[in-house]
Design a protein that fits this description.
The chain has a 3-stranded parallel beta sheet. It is built from 5 helices and 3 strands. By secondary structure, it is mainly α.
Length: 94
């Protein structure tokens, strides 16, 4: 089992220690994975705060590869906006 931990969870973990016992268990069991988006959200702030040790720790976490089809995302968002303007939802259209 792998657990992708969202950047909001990491931020709470680093700031307040919230959910630290759960996250600590996942870290100890080597179940955490990350991706480029989460790293892109966390690392710039860590660099500004000069938290280089945290950056090193984040960078050694296994990284899931992302494949993003931007054209499909743009198409879907366009459909959502068009349907929203018409008062319906593309998710309900068959």
């Amino acid at each position: 089992m792998q657990v992708l931990v969202d950047s909001s969870i990491w931020i709470d973990y680093f700031r307040t220690g919230e959910s630290s016992s759960h996250l600590d268990i996942l870290i100890d069991e080597n179940l955490i994975v990350t991706n480029d988006i989460i790293r892109a959200e966390l690392i710039p702030f860590m660099k500004i705060k000069k938290q280089y040790k945290l950056i090193e720790l984040i960078e050694v976490i296994r990284k899931n590869r992302l494949t993003i089809n931007w054209k499909e995302i743009i198409h879907f968002q366009t459909q959502c906006l068009a349907f929203e303007l018409k008062g319906s939802s593309p998710l309900l259209t068959f």
